[in-house]
Structures are given as structure tokens and as C-alpha cells.
Amino acid sequence: MTDEEKVFLDRITEYANKVMADIDPDPTITPISEQLNYLRPVMEEIAGETGESVEVVFIRYMDLASTVAAKKQKEFEDDFVDFADPTQKNFRF
User: pTM (2 decimals)?
Assistant: First the structure.
């Protein structure tokens, strides 16, 4: 991840942590569409600064967030590999 991508992701994440602090992120409780509405102001602000559409900002955010989540999941699995049952083929958490 480039420094620019990190700043971009951190900005949206910081905003989300403030405005969604009391929101349950479980999509069965707070639908994804509602969660996105909370993020819309910061995404519109970034879109205005960069000249990109809000949709492009959203896609960049989702791509970067997915990459970070996958990396964290891999690190978690690597940390707990010693607890895996060796009799299980292709063990995954």
C-alpha cells in the first residue's frame, strides 16, 4: 500500500469511527446501504478534492479495506497455525 493509499484509507476509517461509533456494523442490524450513507459526506469531500466521482472513491475505499482485511486475516491464521489439527487437510479458521 502506498503512503497516499494509507492516508486515503485512514481518513475514511477515522471518519467512520467517529460517525458510526454507536452503530452496530452487523448488516442484519444496520444495512450496508445505511452504513454507506454515514460515509457519504467524507467520500463526497474526497471526491471534490480529487476530481473523482463518489463512486470511484467508494470503489477505491472498498478495494483498500478488503486488502487490509485479507492481510489481517492471513496474519491471524499464521499466528494460530500451531493450534490447527494436523489431521485436517487444508485447515482454515
Answer: 0.75
